[in-house]
Specification:
The protein has 472 residues and is an alpha/beta fold. The protein is 45% helix and 14% strand. It folds into 3 domains: 150 residues, Rossmann fold (3-Layer(aba) Sandwich); 163 residues, NAD(P)-binding Rossmann-like Domain (Rossmann fold); 34 residues, no CATH class. It has a 7-stranded mixed β-sheet with strand order 9-8-7-6-10-11-12. A 5-stranded mixed β-sheet has the order 1-2-4-3-5.
């Protein structure tokens, strides 16, 4: 019996399947597929009780076709070299698909973050940043981390502060990491960016009547039955936007403590309040507690959103998944074999490298903001407002119609940073989907949307190498 594929093996399997449909020379394909650099750190930290513990961390840089490299840092007991290499490779392809000029990277520390105090986590994070700096694995032009599972704006602020201390003459020091608090050089909209990107992507996918007809669905998100696995930052915001802005019906929710179902729809905010109060999604009024959390993935629905960790859907449960659309809000939630099965069954899998790219897209905007040293909208907001007011005044004089104060305030409003961020994210997700959909249609059924997105990424990375003169 053969050994099961590792996570990195699965990523490369998907790469090889897509690469077979390109015309690039073998050597170029091999270079794109390889991990450029990976490093393992072992360093001691002092616990609050005075004991010393050796921590193990990794950072992988997959591709240097563009610099800096970009990718999150996760704190989890699953972190190992294979995982960070696989996730770094996915970041390369993700950045290429959404036309963000970064190479891919990923890192992590093997800890259960909830078992450490805030002070201990700060010492771990700052020491890890020192190790990254010492080995030239961090910097606004080298490698720019971001949050991932088990980390957030707090840890990113610690990283930025530590880097700034180590590199006091780097005027762009704040660009060494993204998803910082807004007060520390972050950007409005970054916290919800991945979930909002999933929403924008799904909304665009569901707007294509031809594709929905093939799935037996009507166009639009309105009324679509959705199951969300994982109610962390990504899953929560995805569910919130799908429900509030898309009119979708959340019929199921899955967390580590269990799964619930409610055919008439679950109010996302009410569910989150219930979980904060009780510590569990189970027992939510009006919903049914399922016998196991795994059964949540098998609920009858139109859209399944796996927003937890990798390999949630494998050949063990894929035959029982009833969704017609699977939106991979997590990284690598569907095994390559399960993805093949869905393609055969006519299930539309929206690959992680596309659908969850909202986070890195807005991280790119934050990085630009840090390099430009000016808040988005600051220079043009008042000018746009005044121009609009002059136009409204001219219309009033020409037509004799007087606008109300409320109408003037609504029409003549200059864009805030959040408006520009969301507009840029929306445009990115829409453009990226139609690029990979065109490649998918060109294949005439020979490959699925995952392969189409990978072909798109391979073409763009190969072009970047060629334009730099590395390959003929």
């Amino acid at each position: 019996m053969s050994e099961p594929l590792t996570f990195f093996d699965q990523v490369n399997r998907n790469f090889d399947k897509a690469a077979a449909f390109t015309n690039h020379p073998h050597g170029i394909l091999e270079q794109i597929k390889q991990i450029n650099s990976v490093i393992h750190f072992a360093f001691p930290i002092k616990r609050d009780d005075g004991s010393i513990q050796v921590m193990h961390g990794w950072r992988a840089e997959h591709s240097h076709h563009k610099l800096p490299t970009k990718g999150g840092i996760r704190y989890a007991m699953t972190v190992n070299e294979d995982e960070v290499m696989a996730l770094a490779a996915l970041m390369t392809y993700k950045c290429a698909i959404v036309n963000v000029p970064f190479g891919g990277a990923k890192g992590g520390i093997r800890i259960a973050a909830h078992e450490y105090s805030e002070g201990e986590l700060e010492r771990i994070t700052r020491r890890f940043t020192f190790e990254l700096f010492n080995k030239h694995f961090i910097g606004p032009g080298l490698d720019v981390p971001a949050p991932d599972f088990g980390t957030g704006p707090r840890e990113m602020a610690w990283i930025a502060d530590t880097y700034s201390t180590l590199a006091p003459h780097d005027i762009n020091a704040l660009g060494c990491v993204t998803a910082k608090p807004v007060s520390e050089g972050g950007i409005d909209g970054r916290v919800e960016a991945t979930g909002r990107g999933v929403f924008y992507g799904l909304r665009e996918v569901c707007s294509v009547a031809e594709d929905m007809r093939g799935l037996g669905l009507s166009p639009g998100l309105e009324g679509k039955r959705v199951v969300v696995q994982g109610l962390g930052n990504v899953g929560y915001h995805t569910a919130k936007f799908l429900q509030e802005d898309g009119g979708a019906v959340i019929v199921g929710a899955i967390e580590h403590e269990g799964a619930i179902a409610k055919r008439t729809g679950i109010d996302v905010e009410a569910l989150m309040a219930h979980r904060r109060e009780t510590g569990s999604i189970l027992g939510f009024p009006g919903a049914t507690d399922l016998a196991s959390r795994e059964l949540g993935l098998e609920l009858d629905c139109d859209i399944l959103v796996p927003a937890a960790l990798e390999n949630a859907i494998t050949m063990d449960n894929a035959p029982r998944v009833k969704a017609k659309i699977i939106a991979e809000a997590a990284n690598g939630p569907t095994s390559s074999e399960a993805s093949d099965l869905f393609f055969e069954r006519g299930v539309l899998v929206l690959p992680d490298a596309f659908i969850n790219a909202g986070g890195v897209t807005v991280s790119y905007f934050e990085w630009l903001k840090n390099l430009e040293h000016v808040r988005f909208g600051r220079l043009e907001k008042r000018f746009d407002e005044q121009s609009a007011r002059r136009l409204l005044t001219a219309i009033e004089h020409a037509t004799g119609r007087a606008f109300s104060d409320q109408e003037i305030s609504s029409i003549a409003r200059g864009a805030e940073e959040i408006d520009l961020v969301n507009s840029g994210l929306e445009e990115t997700m829409i453009e990226a989907y139609h690029e990979i959909r065109e490649i998918f249609k060109r294949g005439g059924g020979a490959y699925d949307l995952r392969a189409a997105s990978m072909i798109d990424a391979i073409d763009k990375v190969a072009l970047a190498y060629a334009d730099r003169g590395i390959f003929p």
